[in-house]
Design brief:
12 strands; TIM Barrel; alpha/beta
């Protein structure tokens, strides 16, 4: 079994790391440059930066901020938010991003996934899906969870893979920020139906939730924000615990 990845996530608004619950009630939690450097020092496997209001506000991701974060990292760095064309991706890769995450833009223009994969390679393309479960159906949302779409989670995930996505980042809006555990059933289905790695997001509250997401949820990576930002769990503590549970991790 491949080592499971632990990925802190920096949701950024107006240059500050923020966190909410179910995509609302958002508050500031710290400086993303300092936080990114600290997570790299702790042994996080990767870092994800999401400019959560860029698409909604119709602007580009803060490239200068991405550059400042990247200068302090020695781990893979994924950046998303406000990306709508290949030139945006070129600017972010030049600023130090290792991978680029698409969400709203991919749903609005699915062919952008094909273009990204063709121009930069599948390994650079992370497709993020924010989805909410209602009456047994998972529906994808865009613009930071503000706008519902006609895309169904599993159908859209398979299409994204077919178009060239190298990874899938799935956030359950139902679980986001609740600390009640990940959407393991949906994650397991995604992992079974896709051949690309699946990153789980939304709901981490304790170390057993990561055990569940890697066993029941079959995820390749676990992403979290609140529990790391507020020092409820540190990355080294989590990795040691997972190793005790015979889940392979990198030290």
């Amino acid at each position: 079994m491949l080592a499971k990845r632990i990925i802190p996530c920096l949701d950024v608004r107006n240059g500050q790391t923020v966190k909410g619950i179910n995509f609302v009630n958002i508050r500031e939690v710290g400086d993303p440059v300092e936080m990114g450097a600290a997570y790299a020092e702790q042994g996080a496997d990767e870092l994800v930066f999401l400019d959560i209001t860029a698409s909604h506000e119709g602007r580009k991701t803060f490239v200068d901020l991405v550059k400042r974060i990247a200068l302090n990292l020695n781990i893979p760095f994924t950046v998303g938010g406000g990306i709508s064309e290949l030139s945006d991706i070129e600017a972010l890769l030049a600023a130090g991003a290792d991978k680029v995450s698409l969400n709203s833009a991919a749903i609005r223009n699915p062919d952008l996934i094909n273009q990204m994969a063709l121009n930069f390679g599948n390994q650079f393309v992370v497709i993020a899906i924010d989805a909410r479960e209602e009456n047994g159906k998972w529906t994808a949302y865009i613009n930071g969870g503000r706008i519902s779409t006609d895309k169904e989670l599993f159908t859209w995930a398979r299409e994204a893979e077919d178009r060239g996505a190298g990874e899938l980042l799935f956030t359950s809006m139902n679980h986001d920020g609740t600390k009640n555990g990940f959407a393991c059933d949906a994650l397991a289905r995604l992992s079974d139906e896709l051949s690309i790695p699946v990153i789980a997001s939304g709901g981490a509250g304790n170390m057993d939730h990561f055990v569940d997401v890697f066993t029941k949820g079959k995820a390749d990576a676990g992403l979290a924000a609140s529990i790391f930002h507020f020092n409820e769990i540190t990355v080294p503590q989590l990795k040691n615990y997972l190793a005790e549970k015979n889940i392979p991790v990198r030290f």
